[in-house]
Amino acid sequence: MYNRALAERHRAWTEERRRVGHAETDRMLTSWKREPDTRWLAEPSKGPLQATLRYLQAAYVNFWQKRAGYPTFKRKGKTTDSATYFRGCFSFRDGWVKLAKQDRPLDIVWSRPLPAGAVPSQVTVSRNSRGQYHVSILVEETVAALPASVGRAGVDAGVTSLVTLSTGEKVANPRHEQRDRERLARAQRALSRKAKGSANRAKARLRVARVHGRIADRRRDHLHQLSTRIIRENQTVVVEDLAVRNMVRNRSLARAISDASWSELRRMLEYKAGWYGREVIVVDRWYPSSKTCS
């Protein structure tokens, strides 16, 4: 769906110098449902199909406003499998979510309850590389700002220590990938020995994905705990504008830098600061913060 709509929009521009908008791709979808080869598009709910066209439109808007590159085609197995349902294509009652054209509500194990009185506006069902299904529910919630703090902290990212704070505190780097490196290597070697397209290769690929997933889960949990603590304890947080993409070109440090996930830590600090009434200041990468913190 996404790729066909993108191809039509690309063809219209390259051959006719004509921009195709969201409304026109929506009309295309209606016609595709009548074509013999794509008649199956009429079987699922219209929600995920329309959501796909919305995401394509958003990709074009980001391109036009120079926030991202030109939209690219999706490759099977390289993107997360997901389906998004907007209001009107699902029902929510007494903690049960039922999607359009589904016989039964979803069997959900809740990670946390929804805020009291929350009315979901969007439901996304996704499947990760480990074969696990997740349901994300979008609701509007007012987050109360934290009481003002007198704390101020500079955060200097590193490899030996994940971060060094201007207070002198050093947060050790857990090195999540290193802890599972041997297990990951064994799983990858087993995968390389399996015949392409075989059932055994699919099982081996799943084992590799599960090891990667365990590493990612531990890393994300640690960064959440660290970023929340820094935001709660400090009114202003100063971080470096690191060129991580350039730094990982160093072969001797690439694995350690990727495992540290400095960019993800900064992202968490920024959005949590917005939630809780804190301030994050990003300083130039050439500022001698390491000398200052040490």
The geometry reads as globular
Distance between the termini: 54 Å
Radius of gyration: 23 Å
Strand content: 15-25%
Number of strands: 10
Strand order of the largest sheet: 8-7-6-9-10
Return the domain count. Answer: 3
What is the share of helical residues?
40-55%
Biggest beta sheet summary = 5 strands, mixed
**Number of helical regions:** 10
In terms of structural class, how would the helical and strand content be classed? alpha+beta
Taken in chain order, the helices and strands follow as HHHEEEEEEEEHHHEHHHEH
Unreliable residue runs: none
Mean pLDDT: 88
Notes on the protein architecture:
With 294 residues, the protein is α+β, with helices and mostly antiparallel strands. It has 3 domains: 2-64, no CATH class; 81-138, no CATH class; 152-293, no CATH class. The chain contains 10 helices and 10 strands. It has helices at residues 2-16, 22-32, 46-64, 176-179, 181-193, 199-233, 244-247, 254-260, 262-276, 289-293; strands spanning 81-86, 90-93, 96-99, 122-127, 133-138, 152-157, 161-165, 170-172, 236-240, 279-283. The strands form 3 sheets. A 5-stranded mixed beta sheet has the order 8-7-6-9-10. The chain has a 3-stranded antiparallel beta sheet with strand order 1-4-5. It has a two-stranded antiparallel sheet with strand order 2-3. It starts with a helix and ends with a helix. The mean pLDDT is 88.
